[in-house]
Amino acid sequence: MVVEEIISSEDEKMLLESVIWSEDADDQNFQKSLKRRRVKHFGYEFHYENNNVDKDKPLPGGLPDICDSILEKWLKKGYIKYKPDQLTINQYEPGHGIPAHIDTHSAFEDEIISLSLGSEVVMDFKHPDGVTVQVMLPCRSLLVMTGESRYLWTHGITPRKFDTIQASEHYKSGIITSDIGDLTLSKRGIRTSFTFRKVRHTPCNCSYSSVCDSQRKETPPSFPKSEKEATQLEQEYVHRVYEEIAGHFSSTRHTPWPRIVEFLKSLPNGSIVADIGCGNGKYLGINKELYMIGCDRSPNLVDICRERQLQAFVCDALAIPFRTGSCDACISIAVIHHFATAERRVAALQELVRLLRPGGKALIYVWAMEQEYNNQKSKYLKENRINQGKKEISDTSTRGQLVEQMPDVNNQDLAFSMPSINVFQEEECNSRKVTNSELPIHTNRTTFHSQDVLVPWHLKGNPGKDKSVEPFGPVGSHDPGSVFHRYYHVFCAGELEAACQTLSNVSILQSYYDQGNWCVILQKI
Ligand SMILES: O=C(O)CCC(=O)C(=O)O
Ligand SMILES: [Fe+2]
Ligand SMILES: [Zn+2]
Question: What residue stretches are annotated with the Fe2OG dioxygenase domain (predicted)?
Answer without folding.
Answer: 83-200
